[in-house]
Every structure is written in structure tokens, then in C-alpha cells.
Amino acid sequence: MPKKERKRLQVVISDEQDALLTRTAYELSSPERLISKSEVVRLAIEKIARELGDGEPLDGFRALLENEDPEADS
């Protein structure tokens, strides 16, 4: 069976965001299955997209983005 083709995305995150990712992956993991930080990111993308599709107001997401460090995208 051929392997699924995946796109790779490289982003810069703060130490605080990395700690949040690590903590979330740890909390979602179980003794039977460890969850990676990449899986947490994919889950978050799906959750945000689903909420937007359900008519979730964009204001909350925009407020989070406005509070981001503008240098992070450089």
C-alpha cells in the first residue's frame, strides 16, 4: 500500500507555545498510545476548521492572532 503523501509545514513558535504543545500531547496520550506534538497541531487545525464551518465567530480567533508576537513570522 503506497504511503500517503503529506505536506510539511515549518513554523516558528515561542517557548511558551512549545510547552503548551508538549503538555497537550502528554495529556492526550495514554499508556497504549503516545500522541506527538505534530498530531496535536493537526487536531487543532481540524478543530478550528470545524468550528469555523459551524459558524463560530471569528473575533476570538482574530484576538488570539493579534496578541501574537509580530516578529514570529519573520
Provide a descriptive summary of the structure in words.
With 74 residues, this protein is mainly alpha-helical. It has a domain at 35-74. It is built from three helices and no strands. It has helices at 15-28, 37-53, 59-66. It starts with 14 loop residues before the first helix and ends in an 8-residue tail after the last helix. This is Transcriptional regulator.
Q: Oligomeric form of this entry?
A: single chain
Q: Catalogue the unreliable spans.
A: none
Question: What is the succession of H and E elements?
Answer: HHH
Percent of residues in helices: 40-55%
* Share of residues in strands: under 5%
Radius of gyration: 15 Å
Structural class of the secondary structure composition? mainly alpha
Protein name: Transcriptional regulator
